[in-house]
Amino acid sequence: xxxxxxxxxxxxxxxxxxxxxxxxxxxxxxxxxxxxxxxxxxxxxxxxxxxxxxxxxxxxxxxxxxxxxxxxxxxxxxxxxxxxxxxxxxx
Length: 91
Fold this sequence. Notes:
Layout: H1 8-19, H2 44-54, E1 58-67, E2 73-81
Antiparallel strand pairs: 1-2
């Protein structure tokens, strides 16, 4: 299966990989990921920061998290793609 990099599905995969990777998990990019290696709580700021650094074309608009009766954490991340052709806030 291939995913076109211009599709929102591709962006969603990048955001999901960021949210499901803990900092230090990737030896070649140890700063990539979220802060909680046990995923006991979800740090919204960590995912927003991580996407801002590694995926500047993505703007996180909302993050919802809730724990179900079995203790599993459900996370929903809403995003929008920034307008193509901008410098993504980089000067």
